[in-house]
Amino acid sequence: MAGDQSCDVIVIGGGSAAFDAAVSAKKSGADRIIMLEKAPEAEYGGNARYSGTGFRFVHSGAEEMRELVPGLDEDYYRSLNIAPYTREDFLADLERMTQGRMDQTLAETLVDESNAAIHWMKEVGIKWEFLKEHAMVDGKRYFERGIAVHVAGGGLGQLSQWREVAEGLGIEIRFNSPVSAIHGNMHRIEGVHVCSEDGEYDLSGKAVIACAGGFQASPEMRARYLSGNADFVKVRGSKHDTGEVLRYLVELGAMTGGQWQSGHMSPIDAQAPDFETAQHADGRGNTQSRYDYPYGITVNALGQRFFDEGEAQHSYTYAKTGRAVLAQPGSVAWQIYDETGNKMRRYPHHKATVEEANSISELAGKIGLAPEVLSHTVEEFNAACMAEPAFDPTRPDGKRTEGLTIPKSNWATPIVDPPFKAYPVTCGITFTFGGLKVNSRAQVLNTLHEPMKGLYASGDIIGLFYYNYPSFTGQTRNAVFGRLAGRSAVEDN
Ligand SMILES: Cc1cc2nc3c(=O)[nH]c(=O)nc-3n(C[C@H](O)[C@H](O)[C@H](O)COP(=O)(O)OP(=O)(O)OC[C@H]3O[C@@H](n4cnc5c(N)ncnc54)[C@H](O)[C@@H]3O)c2cc1C
Question: Can you give the pTM of this predicted structure?
Answer without folding.
Answer: 0.94
